[in-house]
Here is the input.
Amino acid sequence: MRMRDYRLVAAFAISLALLLRAERAGAERANAPVGTATSPAAADSESDIVRFAGGMIRVDYKATDFTLTREELHEWVRQSARATAAYFGRFPVPYARLVIEPARGDQVTMGRAVGRPEPRIVVTMGRRTTAAELANESLLVHEMVHLAVPDHDIRYLWLHEGIATYVENVARAQAGLMTVEALWAEFMREIPEGLPEPRATGGLDDTRSDRRRYWGGALFCLMADIEIRKATGNRQGLQDALRALQRQGGNLSRMWTLERTIDIADRNTGAPVLAALYRTMGPRPHAPDLTRLWRELGIRHERGRIVLDNAAPLAAIRRAISDRPSAPLLVAAPSVVRVATYREAAARP
Ligand SMILES: [Zn+2]
Here is the structure.
């Protein structure tokens, strides 16, 4: 299986914490790029601008570092941006910078996102990574989702990582980049990792396990999605709550309290779902009956594959979460995507 960013989260969390602290203290130099200033690629770096309705992403990388063609890389960026924009109703920020750093091997190994001084994602990618590998790689959607969520105290990193982990999968299924069966298979396989450890006394706020932080947060999101849909007759879900945060100006460049985030999400829904769920899972360990949950959603293993049962009690909720919308947003249409290439003036010989 591909190495994912949560497997390197210890380094990630430390660097994020350091970055956030530096930024909060005003110590980070304006315009100081993450990870590029001292890399060998910086001397003759190239930038591509990937444009789409409502936004653009500047992609900084050195094409000769990778066997991948420029078009193949653009395709990954476009598809990831399309899935993210379709989930949130628009891309989280009008402009973001994406830095691709080379590494050994043929896989994407790590990603991180920061909101200040500009929205920026840094991805570490193997030099021999193929287009086929990228077609199944959700890490870039994960990092783009981070851009859409307000920053919180480091104690609530599980919420940020949970939203990114949950939405990276749901958004890609809704966009047709993965099948709904693959989505639910991933959740059935990984979400149990988010349950409290045996004899745990603390909740998600106190977890020291990286995998529990990511998948416990994702479990929180799945529970929130289901409970919001139960409370609203399946008319709204977590997607609507996250869009409400966006409408109130929430994104990674803003520091919000957890109370503010929960309050805006719950006011949009009209039911205090997130507040109640946080009280249950945040400060205390909570282990919902996942076997029963999968059964009620109509998801089961049969002869080594996932079978979805539309007669199950919560099947309509499951389909509202993961099925492709019948009327995709205009922003999702490939025809609105253009790519322009230029070489930075400073890079000319
Ligand atoms: Zn993350």
Observations:
- The chain has a mean pLDDT of 84.
